[in-house]
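Format is chain and fold; as here:
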Amino acid sequence: MGSHTHVTDESLPAPVTQVGRDGLDAILSRPSKAVVAFDFDGTLAPIVADPEQARAHPEAAAALAALAPKVASVAVITGRPPGVAVRLGGFDGMPGLDHLVVLGHYGAERWDAATGDITAPPPHPGVAHTRAALPGFLDRIGAWQGTWIEEKGRALAVHTRRAEDPQAAFEALREPLTDLATRHGLIVEPGRLVLELRPPGMDKGVALAEYVRELGAEAVLYAGDDLGDLPAYSAVDKLRSDGVPGLLVCSAGSEEVPELKDRADLVVDGPQGVVELLRALAAQLG
């Protein structure tokens, strides 16, 4: 590909791997063919104890809007319902965000900024059965005080962040919740002190790979912070092996996930670092 001096621009951090540098080069040299994708919680929004109190970094929407017109698409890929991510992100009606999509529920639902429409298939029946069973189930197994259920529409999440010993509660619940999910045809996706029960067949990797194919993208960036982002990392690895250059970014806040950090081409300092990276990319693309 030849070296490009722009990669060493002081405002744009240089990836530590050659494949990452190739991915960044491809984005900078063919931006109209690039998809730039982000997780929401922990990447665009700081992690907070109550997910309903989460808000995107105050400058995230503007930074996305500065970059979006210069690339094929900016995508937010999240386990949240897309409407919730749009509201918490401040994306609705933001000028410049026509090229933004939110792939919510791991891609099962989609919000397009250009139309404001949400498209979605019917929900998996196992979610309703699990929703009905979960409170009594947690009571029966003597779940720790402070454990609570987050309603996500197409999924349910059990959080242990507020328990007296959050990690012990997380470990103790993992196996019984997996059994419950399996009975109703669901899977358990572990995160940072959260266990999400959701339908199989969709994850951030599937959502990202399908979207890249849909757009015929020739370069991809994915930024995430948690275990649920590993499938998207694997999707980028697969795209790279298929000849689509990619850049993997880890948003490392106070609670780092070593599995992600070790595989990333570039590590930035939480949502603030992600916003700075967005700004630097937008500035570099002129």
Q: What stands out?
A: Residues 1-9 have pLDDT under 50 and may be disordered. The first strand starts at residue 34 and ends at 38.
